[in-house]
Amino acid sequence: MKIEEGCGSLATAMRVSFAAALAWIIFYLIYKYYSYFFSFLPVPQVLGLLVGVALGAYTRSLVVGYSASSLFLFNPGSPREIPAYSGYVILLTLALMGLLSYKRGPSDSVVEALLWHRPVRATPVLAAASLLSIYYFLGFKFIYNSLYLVNAGLAAVIASRNSETLWKALSSSIVASLGPVGLLSLSLYLAYMPLPPLRCGGLALPGRLVAYEEETSSTRLLTGGRRWRDRGLACSKPSTPILNLGRRAVVWAYSTDPKGTALILSKSLASKGRALFLDLDSISPCKGPSGRVEAVCLGDYPLVEVKAYLSSLAETAKQYQIVAVSSCRVRPRDIARELALIASNTTVVASLCLPEEDALIASSGPEGGGTLFSMLGDPLLTRTVLGKMFDNNSEKIYYLFRKYRVYLFYPYCERRWAAATT
Questions:
Q1: Would you tell me how many other CB atoms lie within 10 Å of the CB of residue 390?
Q2: Which parts of the chain register pLDDT below 70?
Q3: pLDDT at 402
Q4: Residue of 129, 187, 226, 324 with fewest CB within 10 Å of its CB?
Q5: Count of CA atoms in the C-beta half-sphere (13 A) of 204
């Protein structure tokens, strides 16, 4: 399972829409052929209220609650008719949803997505209106149902804010013309829609950005609390991970495979220039990686001589775009000063096994530096480090490490933590 599937969006919206539509069809088949069992009960009204509140609370949205409620108030057997007291049912649904929203923190996942800075497209509205006109001339009776038309109009408005391409605009208009079913499907899609990626400059990291730190609806959060709107790692549309350093500095990377991480980063970050790879654990001579990366192995030298060699690189490092250091035998504090000197002339990647537990260079680092962090060899150490960096969200982030191939990095745009796939 990919981490993107845990973010919901289209897959979740389709599953919930299908389940709601199937329940609606089964209910009306039963209601049509066995209505004498329910003649003394306002069954559509009761189901509309219950389903509306349940789906609205699940998706953190009054819009979804309304669309689910109105779906069960539309009778395909008598499409022109609207059940009695439907308006009261919808108002009661919205009132209960509003109370839940107030208790859990006022928020609406669909409205939030509609307010994102995105252009408004007229194509879905015009296409939906054209389809409704065709239904009218074909003599479909449901076109005379005011509830159907209101829902189709709301669905067209939602589609107009979510149609980046012509294909998406046309497909959204077809869904919008389905009235209550279309409104439920489109509102569910927006409820789980990932955040748009942020825009900033910096170093392009390998992999795909999948989440970044933000306060948003909990339907978009990979990590976060129980409130309808909370801060945590929020799902993002896939894009290029950007390490927003602002200037050349030391990038600290921690993982179980520091050598592999250093090689991947040096090749990725030095795509247009030379890179120097320093393996502080392997014994020389060592084979250099392919491409523009030069390798030097210093595993047979004591730490004092290694530090002296690093100090001597402070001036000659200008000829390299990236200087990558890999080791499991040294701690960040052992070489922090020497790497900071090198970083004054080029970008430095320090890929190590263990961060300092008492003073996490992983979270602070030299001024202007960055951090990459993935699963460490010791689960307890991983939990300890995550607990110092993320407090209440540490267990959820640890779960992400165990289930998916991801790494965290800092800073993303606007000084945020972010997650990317490898």
A1: 20
A2: 1-15, 17, 31-41, 76-77, 79, 224-225, 246-248, 270-272, 287-292, 357-368
A3: 80
A4: 226
A5: 10
Number of other residues whose CB lies within 10 A of the CB of residue 246: 14
Task: Specify the pLDDT at position 24.
Answer: 73
Q: Note the pLDDT of residue 212.
A: 92
**Amino acid identity, position 229:** R
User: What is the per-residue DSSP string for 271-318?
Assistant: TTS-EEEEESSSPSS-PPPSTTEEEEE-TTS-HHHHHHHHHHHHHHGG
Give the type of residue at 303: L
Q: What residues contact residue 63 under an 8 Å CB cut-off, 6+ apart?
A: 108, 110, 111, 154, 187, 191
Query: Are 319 and 294 contacting, i.e. CB atoms less than 8 angstroms apart?
Result: no
pLDDT at residue number 10: 57
In this structure, what token pair is assigned to residue 319? 């000829």
Rounded Cα gap, residues 235 and 222, in angstroms: 7
CB atoms within 10 A of CB 29: 12
Is-contact 127 169, C-beta < 8 A?
yes
Task: Please state, in angstroms and rounded to a whole number, the distance separating the CA atoms of residues 356 and 339.
Answer: 16
Note whether 361 and 249 are within 8 A (CB): no
**Tokens read off for 123:** 């194509």
